[in-house]
Automatic annotation (TrEMBL):
Protein known as: GDT1 family protein
Family: Belongs to the GDT1 family.
Pfam families per record: GDT1
Organism in which the protein naturally occurs: Aeromicrobium panaciterrae
UniProt keyword list: Membrane, Transmembrane, Transmembrane helix
Stretches that traverse the bilayer: 33-54, 66-87, 99-117, 129-153, 165-183
Lipid bilayer topology: Multi-pass membrane protein
Subcellular localization(s) per the UniProt record: Membrane
C-alpha cells in the first residue's frame, strides 16, 4: 500500500501545473468533461503501464545500490528541470468545440506529451524500488487525480495559487525525494 500511496502522491504533485494538467484544462474548454477524462485516462494508463514495466525490468537487472543512486540523481534533475521550466501565470482561453474522435485525440495527445516526461521517468524510477504493478496503479491514480482536478477545478486553483508557486513546491518535493534516495 505504501508504494501505491508514494507513487500516487509524487505523480500528483509532479502533475500540478505540468503540461498534462494544462492540456486537460485546455481540452476541457474544447470537449465534454467525460471525453477529456476518458481520453486522458487511456493515454495515462498506457504510458504509466509501460513506465512501470520498464522500470521493473531495469530494477531486476541492475545492482540495487546503483539503481538507488541513479534514482536519487534523477529526482534531483527533475527538481532542477521543474524550476527551469516555471511558466508565466497567464494562459489564453480556447473556444469550446466538439468532435467525434475526441477521445482518441485526447488519448494520443496525452501519450505524446508524457513520453520522456518527468512523471514517466519517476514511475520508472519508483518501479525499480517497489513492485511495478503497485507503482503503475499509484502513478495512474496520481495522474488521473491531477487531470480530474484540472478539468473540474483547475482554473479556480490557478486563480488562488499562482502556477509559479505550484512549480516551486513541486521542485522542492522532487529535491527532497532525491536527497532521501541518495542518503538511503
Amino acid at each position: 500500500m505504501y508504494a501505491v500511496l508514494l507513487s500516487a502522491g509524487l505523480v500528483f504533485i509532479a502533475e500540478l501545473g505540468d503540461k498534462s494538467q494544462l492540456m486537460s484544462m485546455t481540452f476541457a474548454t474544447r470537449y465534454r468533461t467525460r471525453t477529456v477524462i476518458i481520453g486522458a485516462g487511456l493515454g495515462c494508463a498506457l504510458t504509466t503501464f509501460v513506465s512501470a514495466f520498464v522500470g521493473n525490468t531495469i530494477g531486476d537487472n541492475l545492482p540495487q545500490h546503483a539503481v538507488r543512486v541513479a534514482a536519487g540523481v534523477l529526482f534531483l534533475i527533475f527538481a532542477a528541470l521543474t524550476l527551469r521550466n516555471v511558466p508565466s501565470d497567464d494562459a489564453p482561453p480556447v473556444e469550446r468545440k466538439r468532435g467525434g474522435a475526441a477521445v482518441l485525440v485526447v488519448a494520443v495527445a496525452f501519450i505524446l506529451a508524457e513520453l520522456g516526461d518527468k512523471t514517466m521517468l519517476a514511475t520508472m524510477t519508483l518501479s525499480t524500488q517497489y513492485h511495478w504493478v503497485l507503482i503503475w496503479i499509484g502513478s495512474l491514480i496520481g495522474e488521473l487525480t491531477a487531470i480530474v482536478l484540472a478539468v473540474f477545478a483547475g482554473r479556480a486553483l490557478l486563480q488562488i495559487l499562482p502556477i509559479r508557486t505550484v512549480h516551486i513546491v513541486s521542485a522542492a518535493l522532487f529535491a527532497a525525494v532525491g536527497v532521501w534516495m541518495l542518503i538511503g
